[in-house]
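A further point concerns the way the authors explain their paired sequence and structure data. Each protein is reduced to its one-letter sequence and a matching series of backbone shape codes. An entry of this sort, consisting of the sequence and the corresponding backbone structure tokens, reads as follows:
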Amino acid sequence: MSEAAPGLITVFGGSGFVGSQVVRDLARRGWRIRVAVRRPDRAYKLQTSGHVGQMQAVRCDATDPAQVEAALMGADAAINLIGVLYESGKRSFEAMHVEAARNIAVGCAAARVGRLVHMSAIGANPESESKYAVTKAAGEMAVREAKPDAVIVRPSIVFGAGDSFLNRFAGMASMAPALPLIGGGSTRFQPVYVGDVSAAIVRAVEEPAAAGRTFELGGPAVMTFEDVLKLVLRETRRSNGLIPLPFFAARAIGGLAQLTSLVGIAPVLTRDQVELLKTDNVVAEGAEGLAELGIEPTGIEAIAPSYLWRYRRGGQFSERPTDMASTVQA
């Protein structure tokens, strides 16, 4: 363990998919953890991540500088994991990705917090047609302006039990006769395991040499959108077809699908997500990443079967005839 730990660390957005893993890893490292979230009741499940009293959930709306200041009181380090995949009410991209990021970075600078790690995303681009990508880039700039020594991590698509990526398409495969190859399915991803992302964030907190650097986090393999859908179908034992869907048609469907957010239901697709799919989501050539943080990336094939079996007919007891035959021969 480095000299920076243990101490008190504030994790903004710590009750989410990535945040839950980060809190568990920090607890194992001996940190005292303050989980700052809008809904503390959603963070209570994290109490079992460490020892009694090691983790405390506090209410914090990161768009309110006063609440951010209170959440940072006495903290030695902070992590900002706040982000949304679609806009809903006051939870706009601008508010969550820019305003909240600025408040946290300014708060860290004012409170003399030693280390801030800010999670952005590969694809953050001020010139993108996607509001998600534009606001992620603006958030990075706001963080750098307020706290130049902050560490920025940019993961590609994150997978793991509870993700909103493979699970989404597996759920679609269990209901729809075919899956859409949006834009022809040629968009490239570099899926990264949530455990590796969490390990990278913890290393970025504890490693003094990480100060002021940006790390792009990708898995060991680059996959096209079509490759991803085929993996989902293979692991769920489904034979659904794949139908090419032009971007303009997907955008129209996304416009209708995102209306579900008005009633609190996560949309399966939005217009902005279609815009994101027009650009590859892979680690840039020459960028620092998991290797520089001493982390060996985990392949998607090693993890996906451990949770996609839930979408098979018959669940974990579903086997192909060839699988059964090989078992008998063995």
